[in-house]
Specification:
The complex is a heterodimer of chains A (336) and B (315). Chain A is mostly helical and 336 residues long. Chain A is 65% helix and 4% strand. Chain A has two domains: 198 residues, no CATH class; 111 residues, no CATH class. Chain A has a two-stranded antiparallel sheet with strand order 1-2. Chain B has 315 residues and is of the alpha/beta class. Classes of the chains: A mainly alpha (336), B alpha/beta (315). Bound molecules: adenosine-5'-triphosphate and magnesium ion (MG). The site of magnesium ion has 4 residues of chain B, from helix 1. Adenosine-5'-triphosphate sits at the interface of chains B and A.
């Protein structure tokens, strides 16, 4: 594997993509949709009087852009290997001086690079949010960086599927399913598993100093025990971690005000929610002394780490499938 | 690029006992195959004989289940990189990148073989001329005709001036003129000391093209002929075709003289004859009988006869 080899493949992929012609329309449509969305957000916020409109707009925009990108990115990579095989151009490439790693990485770079071009097209709208105020530079840089990484992961997963599966339609479909599994599947599984692991616990209520209940009337009196069922999300939070939207939200640096929770910024609310899940249940009888004061740990390093490993695994798998000479062929597949 | 003298390594192709199966399909059961520098070696066999599979093994794309292979002195399995630097391969069916021009297509492969840019551009121009496509250099590949695409694919395999050139059915889809051009091109390439292997069904072409022919059938190598040593009609039994202005007279004369012959067709009447001497005797007799004979010639080439003999037993 070499930089030059990766460059040869990536440049070729870019050139072929650009030549197919539909790109100008696709990029135009993207720009239109994203700007339209930002405009609506802006208009909607005009009737409120807050100082961090920009942050709210920016959060909403980033979530929207990630959702759109999650639709585009799989399409960019999901046919790059089996499509070439179908067209009968892969084998000739495999006998050149290019190695399997060059081909796999070059294709990933091309797909990833294209999705980053889409992301770059949202910059005018991002600047609009910045102009509206309340978006600090670190937040902008970190969310953009995380977004770029997440796009790479999605492309790598789609690429691996295109290398593993013979038919382009199957790999396309499964790539979307994979993105769906990461973004919706994680939530569903988290919800179900958490519900299944509910437990009941006995709660000892402390004596209420202002108690005025007649002990003869209520058996426990002012102090007592009772049971409640709690959802131990502190044991299941990791199921949420790979969710790209939560990673994006949780990784965004927050201002002191956003940390206090006095902001309606969607990224901040999602971050608070997911960190609450990681902390798990707090006692319903907190007199300002229990775990609620414990600072809940961040979730995104785990999630992003996992996703990046997933992407790296995808690239590794693709390289392995492209390595020749081949011993095993997919059923019904011919090399040439 | 100059030929690298690989001391102690066998040049050309040496394959022994190659075997390759796909699940339960024994595509190649046991094939011995040799090809020498300076020669054009043809791989001939019926559909499904395993030609393409064998060539894929030689071209570093498939691992053989058994057997030993050496291409340009290196093992395609363990030294694929070394082999690839010295090997050009064109598959029987291939695609071209539709949105590239012919020139870009060749230059891309020059890049893929890590040929420096200026040299690659020069090479692409040379190959376009060789393929008789210079006027299409800047048109998109998808406007080329099937035969033109085929020619482009063949010269593409020669981008890095490989020591060993393997072409899977290069003549399919080519018109007679292009075939002659291909023959000349390959002949010239082989004469510069390189090894050329072609697979084909078009026996009449191979007759003039190949120096040696290896027959394979049902995954086995079943025969090998040096073209110049193939039996000719001078000494071996062959079918001859006779045409006359007066067909009934010809039939009557043949029957009278005890020759078994085929039903008359528009093309003529076929007779099996032992050798050239027997043919001369037949012609003399017919002329003597005043049969107005127009032509008398053996049909099919020496290669076709050998091929038909080989595949005769098939159901
Ligand atoms: N990838 C594969 N999977 C399963 N069977 C295969 C595969 N490749 C080839 N075969 C089988 O192996 C046999 C030999 O195929 P091969 O393509 O080598 O034949 P061929 O001699 O090139 O034929 P043709 O003259 O038609 O090109 C055939 O029966 C074919 O069906
Ligand atoms: Mg074949």
């Amino acid at each position: 594997m070499s930089l030059a080899g990766i460059g040869v493949v990536a440049r070729q992929e870019f050139r072929l993509r650009i030549r197919t012609g539909r790109w100008r329309w696709l990029l135009g449509a993207w720009l239109l949709v994203v700007t339209g969305f930002t405009g609506l957000l802006y208009a909607g916020l005009q009737h409120t009087t807050r100082t961090d409109d920009g942050a709210v707009m920016y959060g909403g925009l980033m979530l929207f852009v990630l959702a759109l990108a999650a639709l585009v990115a799989p399409a960019l990579a999901a046919q790059s290997v089996n499509g070439d095989r179908e067209r009968g151009v892969l084998a000739a490439l495999q006998v050149t001086a290019l190695g399997a790693g060059d081909i796999a990485t070059g294709k990933l770079v091309a797909a990833w690079g294209t999705s980053v071009v889409f992301l770059a097209l949202t910059l005018p709208d991002v600047l609009w949010c910045v102009a509206a105020g309340g978006v600090q530079l670190t937040r902008l840089l970190v969310t953009m960086g995380v977004m770029v990484l997440l796009l790479g992961v999605i492309c790598a997963i789609a690429l691996a599927l295109s290398a593993l599966l013979r038919r382009t339609t199957t790999s396309g479909l499964l790539s979307y399913l994979a993105v769906f599994a990461l973004s919706i599947g994680t939530l569903v599984v988290f919800g179900l598993v958490s519900a299944a692991t509910q437990e009941t616990r006995v709660v000892h209520t402390p004596v209420d100093p202002n108690c005025s209940i007649d002990p003869g009337f209520s058996p426990g009196g002012c102090s007592g025990t009772y049971t409640e069922s709690v959802v131990r999300t502190d044991r299941t939070w990791w199921l949420l971690a790979p969710n790209p939207f939560l990673i994006l939200a949780d990784s965004a640096p927050q201002t002191a005000k956003q940390k206090r929770g006095s902001s309606t910024d969607p990224l901040g609310s999602m971050a608070r929610w997911v960190r609450d899940q990681r902390r798990g249940p707090t006692s319903s009888f907190t007199y300002g002394s229990l775990s609620s004061t414990r600072n809940p740990g961040a979730v995104w390093p785990w999630g992003l780490g996992f996703d990046v490993l997933l992407g790296a695994g995808g690239l590794w798998l693709t390289t392995r499938r492209l390595r020749t000479p081949t011993r095993k062929l997919a059923r019904g597949a011919r090399i040439a | 690029m100059t030929m690298t003298e690989t001391s102690g390594r066998p040049p050309g192709i040496v394959a022994q006992g190659v075997r390759r199966t796909f699940g339960s399909v024994e595509a190649v059961r046991s094939v011995d195959f040799h090809a020498q520098p300076g020669e054009i070696t043809a791989l001939v066999g019926p559909n499904g004989a395993g030609k393409t599979t064998l060539l894929l093994v030689l071209a570093t794309l498939l691992v053989p289940d058994a057997g030993s292979v050496s291409v340009a002195g290196y093992d395609p399995m363990t030294e694929a990189g070394e082999v690839r630097r010295r090997l050009g391969w064109a598959p029987d069916v291939f695609g071209l990148y539709d949105n590239l021009t012919a020139r870009e297509y060749l230059e891309f492969f020059a890049d893929a073989y890590r040929i420096p840019r200026p040299r690659g551009q020069q090479r692409a121009a040379e190959l376009l001329a060789l393929a008789h496509l210079p006027e299409y250099a800047d048109s998109p590949v998808h406007v080329l005709s099937r035969g033109q695409k085929q020619r482009l694919g063949v010269v593409r395999a020669m981008v890095h001036d490989p020591e060993v050139l393997i072409l899977d059915e290069p003549a399919s889809g080519l018109d007679p003129r292009s075939r002659v051009d291909l023959k000349e091109m390959l002949r010239e390439y082989a004469e510069s000391g390189r090894t050329v292997v072609v697979s084909s069904h078009i026996l009449s072409d191979l007759e003039e093209l190949a120096d040696r022919v290896v027959f394979i059938d049902k995954g086995l190598s079943v025969g090998e002929h040096v073209m110049s040593a193939l039996p000719t009609s001078a000494t071996s039994r062959r079918t001859w075709r006779l045409r006359s202005l007066d067909e009934p007279a010809l039939v009557a004369a043949l029957t009278r003289n005890g020759y078994s012959h085929s039903e008359p067709t528009a093309a003529g009447i076929d007779v099996d004859l032992a050798d050239d001497a027997a043919a001369a005797a037949l012609i003399a007799g017919l002329v003597n009988d005043k049969v107005p004979l127009v032509s008398c010639a053996p049909i099919g080439g020496a290669l076709e006869a050998a091929y038909l003999e080989l595949t005769e037993g098939r159901s």
